């Protein structure tokens, strides 16, 4: 994790408060507080700007959708993701998951 922080262009965390907490001491930054303090860290407010991150208008996605079309579009998007990740042997019906963790004992997925 130390190398990732040093080599990163930007370090973000889930909130401005948590960003401050990570650099507040060795016990909070899991001995990475000095590295994080030197590289800098920002916290984003939980949630997102749905005008910018709107799947109906997002310029960074190829297939646009909304609440009325997501159930039809989702398998197409999932197939594209599996293909892009070269997970050819995975069935389209297989569940996918994402995990983000805190760098403390209260990790969660």
Mean pLDDT: 80
Structural class, please? mainly alpha
Question: What radius of gyration results from the CA coordinates?
Answer: 18 Å
Q: Biggest β-sheet, characterized? A: 2 strands, parallel
Strand order of the largest sheet: 1-2
Give a written overview of the molecule:
The protein is mainly alpha-helical and 109 residues long. The protein has 2 domains: 2-43, no CATH class; 54-95, no CATH class. 32% of the residues lie in helices and 4% in strands. It has 4 helices and 2 strands. The chain has helices at residues 2-7, 16-22, 33-39, 70-84; strands at residues 12-13, 42-43. The protein has a two-stranded parallel sheet with strand order 1-2. The longest helix is centred in the last third of the chain and has 15 residues, at 70-84. The two termini are 18 Å apart. The relative contact order is 0.12.
Q: Can you tag this structure with a few keywords?
A:
mainly alpha, two-stranded parallel sheet, 109 residues
Short description:
The chain is mainly alpha-helical. It has helices spanning 2-7, 16-22, 33-39, 70-84, and strands spanning 12-13, 42-43.
What topology does this entry show?
Elements: H1 2-7, E1 12-13, H2 16-22, H3 33-39, E2 42-43, H4 70-84
Parallel strand pairs: 1-2
């Amino acid at each position: 994790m130390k190398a990732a922080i040093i080599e990163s262009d930007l370090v973000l965390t889930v909130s401005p408060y948590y960003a401050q907490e990570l650099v507040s001491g060795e016990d909070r930054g899991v001995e990475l507080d000095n590295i994080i303090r030197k590289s800098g860290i920002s916290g984003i407010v939980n949630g997102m700007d749905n005008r910018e991150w709107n799947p109906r208008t997002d310029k960074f996605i190829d297939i646009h959708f909304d609440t009325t079309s997501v159930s039809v579009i989702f398998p197409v998007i999932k197939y594209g993701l599996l293909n892009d990740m070269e997970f050819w042997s995975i069935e389209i019906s297989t569940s996918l998951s994402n995990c983000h963790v805190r760098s403390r004992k209260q990790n969660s997925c």
